[in-house]
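Morning, I've got a small favour to ask if you have a moment. I've dropped the whole record in just underneath, so have a look.
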Amino acid sequence: MDEIRISNLEVFCHHGVYEEENTLGQKFLVSAILYTDTRQAGKTDNLEYSIHYGDVCHTIKAIMEERNYKLLEAVAETVAERLLHQYDSLVAIRLEIKKPWAPIMLPIDTVSVVIERSWHQVYFSIGSNMGDKKAHLDYAVEQLKKHEAYRDVMVSSYIETEPYGNVEQDNFLNACIRCRTLLTPEEVLTHIHQIEAEQHRTREVHWGPRTLDIDILYYDKAVIETEDLCIPHPEVGLRTFVLEPLAELAPNLRDPITGLTVCQMLSTLR
């Protein structure tokens, strides 16, 4: 990925834990690496296909001056998130905010906070077999589309499938979703559980009937296994009702564990 670099932009503002910092203000230095694709801009010599670093500098200044924060961490998080939202071609950012005049009563050159933030590709499986099934799926899609931490939400066809497992119940309506997010996997999990709860989802019977079920299938190429979260979803390759709609969105998506594509897994399962 190409880089546009900004080094030591000076901004005078009022951030800090102490009251005098909020009152008197002080100088901060901001450095950023903007990760983007500059090839088309380089080929055409047209700024329209790049990120205007002058505009970015003025945006950073405006964000840092609009309110006071106690922590550099909060300043950095806000600046990074706002820039990623504002510039469509900005894929990721590495941001450092330095505080040269940190009031610690000791000789020091500077203190700083460095963070890296980016958009992440995530895939979901959604399903319902209670009540108005389509309405439940539509609700999940709409909640992702209207949430500012998600972008480019794409939805597969809705398909009707027989229940999975040994519990007698109604047929399911299933689909898959592809989108980009600024949230961490753990934050995504919390959010989808909130969406499920809003549709009165309960977990009384394993593989039992549910108003709305949302599973994280993939998050970039991440492999995560904790008590609460397993990515990739451990049963992706065993579920036709997942692989069929997923193949609509990403037929060549490769599982980071098995190395198989979605189409290969679907062919094997069939």
Q: What stands out?
A: The chain has two domains: 2-118, 120-269. The chain has a mean pLDDT of 92.
